[in-house]
Design goal:
Two copies of one chain form a homodimer.
Chain A lengths: L10 H12 L4 E3 L6 E4 L8 E8 L16 E7 L5 H11 L5 E6 L2 H18 L3 E6 L23 H13 L4 H13 L1 E7 L19 E4 L10 E4 L3 H13 L9 E8 L5 H17 L3 E8 L9 E8 L2 H7 L3 E2 L4 E2 L3
Parallel strand pairs in A: 3-4, 3-5, 5-6, 10-11
Antiparallel strand pairs in A: 1-2, 2-4, 7-8, 7-12, 8-9, 10-12, 13-14
Helix pairs in contact in A: 2-3, 4-5, 4-8, 6-7
């Protein structure tokens, strides 16, 4: 295990100490618990937005707490859900009189704990909480249809949900409308990735799976979950040719649509390679007459040192586009008004 | 070689096509040459700042072209200098009537070509050009003293030189003053790193060096240049305990000083580990009574998929601090006024 860490059991608390030390004007924690991160920029009367999940995915999840995005984040150990109590403490801290929206990825532990936290907020603190569960990974399960349970994993596309809902809350929309926006972003974003190498959970000390030096896995999840197929490593263009049509067929995205694109590095894949991939993505979108309103390239949702990347496409209407283009300022994501 | 690329010889041109496709409102190229990148936000009467160097270090070098930072960048193949002709074409394109400053790292090929480009600018285009060569790597050579040739490599600390000089130019300082600021930043920044794994130049197809699974190299350069010593992998705290005092002793930094810090990931090292490292950096600086005015953590100067990181410390006075805190907006680095 080749990592720059101290004792594995201290990995996440020490990472958090580093984060609070580096960004003292932006984030702090409540309840004397480093894992209960909240913004330093609380706005009276604004809907509070909280997220949470296991560690090991920086900048996901805590990196998006800041102006124009989220207000709090419950932080678990590596790949483990934080507790309902931690979520509840954050909920109390960020409620500014307009209620709180939970946005998180579709994982059983998170669902269980966020649901319990929402009940605690209702019964013990009289705070109205609504929840939106992001499940954007085309690879991971059956299709999402109206009224059906979404069995898909939440992956990098949750960034778009944070961005649009965060901007909606910053516009002082009420809780129903911020939830409506988050749901609309969820319904219009799809992601698929490719994994090339595993990562090591420090406490475990060995890779979660093995993959041959000449292999890749299409559709791998951000914890190394099994994807759609494993095969010989293809070229960048061939990978995009295989992944992107599966994304586009899913909603489906159609000629004349406008989209935002996120090329997300999983941690170990250089930015150079992510741009080689975007080149092919744009060629295909152009050929399909799908217009790109904005492109993000970089590490937005990682799996520590895992190699690989994902492609997310968000279909926008005028409202989502306006919210996407709004200013945001967090320790990890900054955007001037576009 | 496990990379998401197409033909190795097309790696950099295809990466550049991806960059221009992703950031059409921010950057473009001149002379029909993808390797001659210039800003879309030229400001009349402002000193132009150009940089350049080999590829494989994103966001270095081209990622810092944008508002409040640089105006142009000559882009070489992986780890290879761009040509004097390319630098000259950029110089002509970005000159806005106030002359041009070259800021680049201390590598022989770059020095040779930038010097030739400056002569061409003088003789063929009557553009005044000044140059500042960054050499911040404490590990790489003998001390820098007044009047002595700096034999140190330029590494991640060049980010601070770009930031301060870019803000000075944005304030409409003249060429002499922008150069003065760049020199002051160079004289006050020091960096040292640690490498854990090699990277592969696509055209070469195999690692530039080998290092055992339980080893690290203190002081390794961003092309894998030999450092100060190779030994067993230490803990995060032990690595900082070894590196940081060598940085602090160098200028030296003293009790009561104020500094900015950059923890830079080399490409393959997760952000989580970088924060564990910053935690220890801050503890030591606090114990030394050195105040941190701002902290940057992330990938600022990489070596593709290389694992490892570097620590840079910039000693600031009121002028450098003002310039550091100014707004900047490039495709890869955004900062609201601090």
């Amino acid at each position: 295990m080749k990592k720059i860490i101290n004792k594995p059991e201290n990995f996440i608390p020490e990472m958090l100490e580093g984060i609070y030390a580096a960004h003292p004007h932006d984030v702090t924690y409540v309840n004397d618990d480093l894992h209960c991160l909240v913004t330093q920029h609380k706005v009276a009367g604004k809907v509070g937005i909280s997220t949470g999940g296991g560690s090991g995915h920086l900048p996901l999840f805590l990196g998006y707490v800041g102006k124009g995005m989220l207000d709090g984040c419950a932080i678990g150990d590596v790949f483990q859900s934080p507790s309902a109590e931690q979520m509840f403490e954050i909920t109390k801290a960020i409620d500014a009189g307009a209620g709180v929206l939970y946005i998180y990825g579709n994982y059983n532990g998170d669902i269980f704990n966020f649901d319990m936290a929402a009940e605690m907020a209702d019964f013990e603190a009289d705070i109205r909480v609504e929840s939106v569960v992001a499940g954007d990974d085309v690879a991971s399960a059956a299709a999402v249809n109206a009224g059906q349970k979404n069995t898909r994993r939440g992956v990098a596309g949750i960034f778009f949900v944070y961005k649009c809902a965060g901007a909606a809350a910053a516009e002082m929309m009420d809780l129903d409308n911020v939830k409506r926006i988050a749901l609309k972003a969820c319904q219009n974003v799809r992601t698929m990735g490719v994994g090339l190498s595993p990562c090591i959970v420090p406490r475990v000390g060995k890779p979660g799976f093995s993959i041959a030096e000449d292999e890749m896995e299409i559709g791998m999840g951000i914890h190394g979950e099994t994807g759609i197929r494993r095969g010989k490593l293809l070229s960048a263009d061939e990978i995009v040719n295989e992944i992107l049509p599966q994304i586009l067929d899913d909603i489906p995205y159609q000629s004349g649509d406008e989209v935002a694109v996120l090329i997300n590095g999983l941690g170990g894949t250089p930015l150079e390679e992510q741009y080689v991939v975007y080149r092919r993505v744009q060629q295909i979108l152009q050929a399909e007459n799908i217009k790109v309103c904005h492109t993000y390239v970089g590490e937005y949702a990682t799996a520590m040192e895992m190699s690989g990347l994902s492609i997310s496409v968000l279909k926008v209407d005028d409202e989502l586009k306006r919210l996407l283009k709004a200013q945001a300022d967090t320790p990890f994501f900054k955007q001037f008004q576009l």
